[in-house]
Amino acid sequence: xxxxxxxxxxxxxxxxxxxxxxxxxxxxxxxxxxxxxxxxxxxxxxxxxxxxxxxxxxxxxxxxxxxxxxxxxxxxxxxxxxxxxxxxxxxxxxxxxxxxxxxxxxxxxxxxxxxxxxxxxxxxxxxxxxxxxxxxxxxxxxxxxxxxxxxxxxxxxxxxxxxxxxxxxxxxxxxxxxxxxxxxxxxxxxxxxxxxxxxxxxxxxxxxxxxxxxxxxxxxxxxxxxxxxxxxxxxxxxxxxxxxxxxxxxxxxxxxxxxxxxxxxxxxxxxxxxxxxxxxxxxxxxxxxxxxxxxxxxxxxxxxxxxxxxxxxxxxxxxxxxxxxxxxxxxxxxxxxxxxxxxxxxxxxxxxxxxxxxxxxxxxxxxxxxxxxxxxxxxxxxxxxxxxxxxxxxxxxxxxxxxxxxxxxxxxxxxxxxxxxxxxxxxxxxxxxxxxxxxxxxxxxxxxxxxxxxxxxx
Length: 458
Description:
Blueprint: H1 3-28, H2 39-49, H3 57-65, E1 70-74, H4 80-92, H5 95-109, E2 113-118, E3 124-129, E4 134-138, E5 146-156, E6 165-172, E7 176-182, E8 196-198, E9 208-210, E10 218-220, H6 238-258, E11 263-266, E12 299-302, H7 309-326, H8 342-348, H9 350-378, E13 388-391, H10 399-411, H11 416-422, H12 427-457
């Protein structure tokens, strides 16, 4: 069957990336490998440090995703209604929260996806999906053109002995959507396309659905790539994270041994055991014991303690390395005695700000395409509407600087409503503030008119 080649490609893609995806997720959540350990080190300290990690991977990913917030969609002159409708669709699908998860997913694993399709009420629904279930095939000659996409996922088995799970497969094309399901429940995801057959649900809906929009309704959010699978922000961070964990473990081991001072004694002989003829130690060290002898020639001493500041310096160096390779500002990963502010902060975050703006451009294009399809599904606009995603400025700013910037924008023609939105206020709060301002203006005008009339009567 024609579908077998596409399902086989999707299964192969999912299998090839499964190990890497598990690795990125584990490191993001602090489940790190114990690296750089000898067999003796493992046998002695593995149990003690199995769950030890100074997790900076989460900070590297969150630093990027936290700076990416969509605030609206602008359009060309004369199409303002389409921009407002796109924002209504965005809010209806609660993308103020879910979009952040899409960005975090892409930064964490390298890829994230969104499916846009009508819901039961025929209105557009936006469905974020992770990379474990999705695959997108691009045109080899045009890296921006999606030829087809797939989603393969498991569902509960409601028939038979209910052991195992069923696996569903959807293939998305510009003109149709094909649905497939495995032959009975299985214990793991199949490796062969022959395990799938056409799926007809309980409502007897067809296994092939027409797609009237002439576009694949799957939108890809690759991290730092275009036209292929993205790259996790943790690719260069994980080896340094392992080294950082090792340095922390070494410091804790040194602290453990240094907690009890190592002492020495010379000129003291131990007794010989008459049964084994082995010499017994002259002293047994302990926190509740002291060394004493009647030998006037005996000498006692104590070894110098290890300098733990060297361990602290190594740990800080690894933090610096992680900040350097990831482009994450150091103050996101480590507390600083004198944190930068103002222009100094802008300079330090210049590289990071550039990275954020790059993602805004790439992922903004994906959101624009997704919302354009959503507008067509809702019947609000035609295919010719050009949306432009608007974002919170990722550059660090003080509240005063932001307020002054918005004042200058208003003088240049930006509406007060849009300025308040860029300052982070919700639409509901904006409406309330504008209403209160209008009431205050009306009240002031009324008082002024009364005062004028009173003066006129005199």
